[in-house]
Give the backbone structure.
Amino acid sequence: MATQHSPLLAAENGDGQDPAVAGQAYFDQIIEDDSRVEPRDWMPDAYRKTLIRQISQHAHSEIIGMQPEGNWISRAPSLKRKAILMAKVQDEAGHGLYLYSAAETLGTPREVLNDQLLAGKARYSSIFNYPARSWADMGAIGWLVDGAAICNQVPLCRASYGPYARAMVRVCKEESFHQRQGFEILLELANGTPAQKQMAQEAINGMYAPALMMFGPPDSDSAHSSQSMAWNIKRFSNDELRQRFVGMIAEQVKVLGLTLPDDDIRFNKDTGKWEYGELDWQEFNEVLAGRGPCNAQRMERRREAHENGAWVREAAAAFAAKRAQKEQVA
Ligand code: 3HC
C-alpha cells in the first residue's frame, strides 16, 4: 500500500529538510517497498516524464487502434459479429480515455497530448500501421494483437504509478474478452471451408511478426527499459515478454489446427525460454519513422475524425458551462 503521509509536509512545516531531498528519499522508499506512487506524491521529473511518455503513447495506440477494426464494422459477416466488433472498438475508445485521464493526473492536459498526436509528434503502437485486409484479420488482430497487449499489460497492473496500474486492471479484463473473440473467429474459419481456413492462415502469417514487434525493440536497443524497470514501471524487459508471448501462441495455434510462420520456434529447456526466428527490425524502424504501410492513412483519418467531432466538443463544453452556472445559482 502507498504511504499515506507526505514527507514534504514535514519539510514545509519547518523541520529544516530540503523538500527535494525529503521528496527523493520518500520516493526511493516507495520504490524500494514496491509500493505505489500517487499523483500528489513527490516524484522525480524524469519519472513523471517517462510516465507521461509511456501512458500517452499507450492512449494514442488505443485511439488509433480503433481504425483497422472500425473499418470492418460495416462489413462484418453477421449481425452477431457486427455487435461484438462494435463493442470491442468502443472498449478501445474507453481504454484511451482511462489512459488520457491517468496521464492528466501527472499534470499534462489531454488537449496537449491530443495536439501532439495530431501534429504527428507522438508515437503510437507500430501494429496499427498495418492493414486489415480480410475478415480473418479481425480474428488475427483479436488473438495476436490483443493477446500481445495482454501479455505486455498484465505486468503493468503492478506498475508503481497508482492511476496507471489501476487503469490497466480494467483494460486487461476487457482485452481478455477481445482476445477470445479473435480466437473464436479464427477457430470458426479454421473449421470452415478450405478457402476460409486458408484465409485464417494468411491472416496469422501477416499479423505474427508485427504482433511480436509490439513488445518494442530488442533489449539491446531499448533506450528506456532499464530505468523503467528500476522504477517498477515495467516489470519485464521487451525480449522477456516477447518470448513469453511466443510460448503462449505456439501452444494455442495447435488448437486452431494452423501454424505460426516461423520454423525456428522452440522451447529451450536449458534457458527455460522460447526461441524464435529473427524479426525484421529494419521494417520496425521504418514503421516508427512514419513509413509503414498505413501510417499516413491512419493520421489522416484521425485528423478528419477530430475535425468532424468539433461540434460534439463544443456542445459538451456548452452543456458543462450551463450546468456549472445552474449549480452556482443553486
Ligand atoms: N510501436 C511504436 N513505438 C515503439 C514500439 C512499438 N511497438 N516499441 C517501442 N517503441 C518506441 C518507444 O516508444 C520508444 O520511443 P520514444 O523514446 O520516442 O518514446 C522507443 O521505441 C524505444 O523503445 P523502448 O523499449 O526503450 O521503450 P519503452 O521502454 O517505453 O517500451 C513498450 C516500449 C514496451 C511499448 C512500453 O512503452 C509499454 O509497455 N507501453 C505500454 C503498452 C502500450 O503502449 N501498448 C500499445 C499496444 S496497443 C494496445 O494496447 C491496444 C489494444 O487494443 C490492442
Notes: The CA atoms of residues 30 and 36 lie 6 Å apart. Residues 162-190 form the longest helix (29 residues). Residues 1-5 have pLDDT under 50 and may be disordered. Residues 53-54, 57-58, 61-62, 65, 92, 123, 125-126, 145-146, 149, 152-153, 213-217, 222-225, 228, 234, 238, 288 surround 3-hydroxybutanoyl-coenzyme A (CB under 6 Å).
